[in-house]
Amino acid sequence: MKAIALTRYLSIDDPQSLMDIELDKPEPSGRDLLVAVKAIAVNPVDYKVRAPNETNKDIVEASPKILGWDAAGVVEAVGPDVTLFKPGDEVFYAGDITRQGANSEFHLIDERIVGHKPKSLDFAHAAAFPLTSITAYEAFFERLGIDVDGSDEGKTILIVGGAGGVGSIAIQLAKIAGLTVVTTASRPESSDWVKKLGADYVINHREPLRPQIEKIGLKYVDYIALFNDTDGHWKAATDLIRPQGHIVTIVENNKPLEMDEMKLKAATLSWEFMFARSMFQTPDMIEQHRLLSRIAAWIDEGRIQGTAGDVMSPINAANLRAAHATLEAGRAIGKIVIEGWS
């Protein structure tokens, strides 16, 4: 089978950073599905794993390492313990960071973290959803404790980084829950994008946030989601969160986060990492199957818009390197998707 892989951790401008290779087709066991991958999407986790750093820069992998944690495709075969799917089912999923990724023609994935593909979408546009949908859903409805059925209607949320992949779905989930959404964007095209997705107010994260928040009539916000630069926005977030409010972040910090303001306000910080369930094989892994089913239903009902910003073809190393480069440079709006094997 065709696959795109690395053996060394290199800058994306190096042709060997991601390479076209051939591998044997795997066979499913246990609760695994073997999926014929039709489309993939790219996320910051892809380039963060691939990029050289002090820990990995001298490592040479003994066998090719495949990245990729967003896919849509068709179930080719199932393991003996599978109960949720059958061959021929169309699926979408984000995957498990502890296993080989989805940048291959055929991919093994545990059924408990897979959803049935939305019927209204083709494979390319379905592949844009899983990782960001799981991340935003868990961040809002599990970490922040927002009521998905609307009992928190009218409360305010500030989403820092609304035009990115996670922000694009998060805006829509917040509106489904009835929240007033303030989001950040720094360019005209990204501002237009978040307004299209339903943001009530758009402010610029490259300028001080408090004056912009006060200009729209707010002193504090009930919830804050940091989907960009936790270090850079932490001071503003602790200033703007209401007493007893709740902040969630998905971006690792590089320096200690000052907690004095959080303590005075009795505010809460939660971390969201969508791979935690599969990484630790938690007893509730199947919740990701269930939430993907809910997301698919909302898409088919027209309650969620597509978040694919750019669709490329075919799936090969050259296109995947170009997608990594765009993400690393911070130029992406929405999700970058690649479909079809050459």
Automatic annotation (TrEMBL):
Chain ranges of the Enoyl reductase (ER) domain: 13-338
GO function terms (MF aspect): oxidoreductase activity; RNA binding; zinc ion binding
CDD domains referenced in this protein's UniProt entry, alphabetically: AL_MDR
Keywords: Acetylation, Cytoplasm, Metal-binding, NADP, Oxidoreductase, RNA-binding, Zinc
Keyword Oxidoreductase in annotation: yes
SUPFAM superfamilies hit by this protein: GroES-like, NAD(P)-binding Rossmann-fold domains
Transmembrane portions of the chain: none
Subcellular location: Cytoplasm
PANTHER family per the UniProt record, alphabetical: QUINONE OXIDOREDUCTASE (PTHR44154:SF1)
Protein name as catalogued: Zinc-type alcohol dehydrogenase-like protein
